Please model this.
Amino acid sequence: MTNTLITVAPTGAESEKAAVPALPVTLDELVTTAKECQAAGAAVIHVHIRDGDAHPTLDLARLTDTVAALRQGTDLIVQLSTGGAVTDSFESRLAVLDAAPDACSLTCGTVNFGDDVFMNPWNFISELYAKTRDRGVVPEFELFDFGHIATLHRLLADQGLPHGGHVHCDLVMGVPGGMPGNAATLTQAVAALPEGATWSATGIGRTSVPVMFAALAAGGHLRVGMEDTLSYARGRPVTGNAELVERAATLAGLAQRPAMRPQQARVMLGVGAHD
Ligand code: KMH
Ligand code: ZN
Model:
């Protein structure tokens, strides 16, 4: 059994700073969180950024500065979100790769997203994947539903393996409109993944803890963070991302699969060292 890759998704695009004061939205807050989460056991950071008013943005200069600051302050693998917010254009989402991150998210299909729709039509997915290969950015395939797994198979059959030569997926479970976050669904989804793929799982909201237990039992990896979960327990708000990473690392240790260090994660994911 391998050690456990822990990804932290500290911010997301959905929560408002005014409603969630602990959410890291400035570059300083993000780097401080990233350092704490690395110390707690994270190896990858999934990054959404905010503008000066704490609204989600895909501004290229800010993204580029963010990649540089996270690299300077931590050893974490920097994975930029190409999902952005549901209001972001396909063009701006493709342009995220111009910030030259180590890795990026790549969602393999459209999904109802609460009252919104997170749009990922085939042509966009295909163009984004081609750009990751062209730019040497390692994609993580975000799978919100079973049809997304079928699209991942189509993508790999069409264009071949990603940069780095390894397929790593993240099962995003419990989004209202996507697959539910429970052990039975996780088992079925894992069985449908491409041969040789590694995978993490993320349970949104109250599915966070059951999905973590199911993923560890099934040999998977973990993604946690305030993008996905704002309650540590019923009636107890999360006070910061580090406590979510600490809990994940504790559970991984109990499962006899302690948290992977960033260097080990680079080898597993096929992410090279940066300059
Ligand atoms: N914010 C969601 C609409 C990703 O980062 O790639 C999309 C999302 C997925 O968070
Ligand atoms: Zn995201």
Notes: The chain has a mean pLDDT of 98. The radius of gyration is 17 Å.
